[in-house]
Design goal:
It is found in: Cytoplasm. With about 220 residues, the chain is of the alpha/beta class. The chain is built from nine helices and eight strands. It binds cytidine-5'-monophosphate.
Length: about 220
């Protein structure tokens, strides 16, 4: 059976994770946050004392990367081995180094296989998969493909509201740096052929969730 995959891509701070999770919850679908896997690998590399700038070391750390992620949007948790890293992977220190592990082609191949296995196992009645390359590389045949965007100012403001004690300009700067690094690896700023753009600049959270559900319904 072809899994009913809703593929969602977008830049940092576009709200893809929180919006995708809520869409999944309302539709009774599974939810897969692929960025969490790249973050978990960055956490694992740091915890193992590996230099994330050294691609060969990052690749060798894949062998001991025991990663588990829940696909239930209500009981969402990320584990590396026995450690619950759900909160730790959101740390600005991880955001600062995650692009270095994500740019390694062997890392991407390894994680993409993992994502496809999760999609195949947990796709009934559907699964919302979000990241940077889901609509183009991970699931280009998905029946629903969405690019979730928002203006840079709005994204920086949303991100800094999440991170207590940080100024919008610092957060905006880090976000821009991370997007620029990530954009060298995959294009998530423009919608590929057949991908529907949802621009949330003028929408609140609930309206964005409704807009995404609208796109899903119109394709069913
Ligand atoms: O989505 P999130 O901001 O948590 O993603 C963290 C990082 O993981 C991104 O900055 C990017 O380097 C990487 N990533 C990726 N491909 C994906 C999802 C995330 O390279 N599909």
């Amino acid at each position: 059976v072809t899994p009913f995959v809703v593929a969602v891509d977008g830049p940092a701070g576009s709200g893809k994770s929180s919006v995708s999770k809520e869409v999944a919850r309302r539709l009774g679908y599974g939810f897969l946050d692929t960025g969490a896997a790249y973050r978990a690998l960055a956490w694992h590399a740091e915890a193992s004392g590996i230099d994330t700038d050294d691609a060969a070391s990052v690749i060798s750390s894949l062998a001991s990367f025991d990663y588990r992620i829940g696909t239930d949007p209500a009981g969402y948790a990320v584990h590396v081995g026995e450690a619950d890293v759900t909160d730790a992977i959101r740390d600005p220190q991880i955001s600062a180094v995650v692009s270095r592990v994500a740019r390694v082609p062997e890392v991407r191949t390894h994680l993409i296989e993992l994502f496809r296995a999760i999609m195949a196992a947990d796709a009934a009645p559907g699964i919302v998969v979000e990241g940077r390359d889901i609509t183009t590389v991970v699931a280009p045949d998905a029946p629903v493909r969405i690019l979730l965007t928002a203006s840079e100012d709005v994204r920086a403001a949303r991100r800094s509201a999440e991170l207590v004690g940080s100024s919008t300009s610092d957060v905006g700067e880090q976000m821009r740096r991370r997007d620029a690094a990530d954009a060298k690896v995959v294009d998530f700023m423009t919608a590929a052929d057949g991908v529907t753009t949802v621009d949330s600049t003028e929408l609140d959270f609930d309206q964005t969730v409704e807009a995404v559900i609208g796109v899903i319904r119109s394709s069913q």
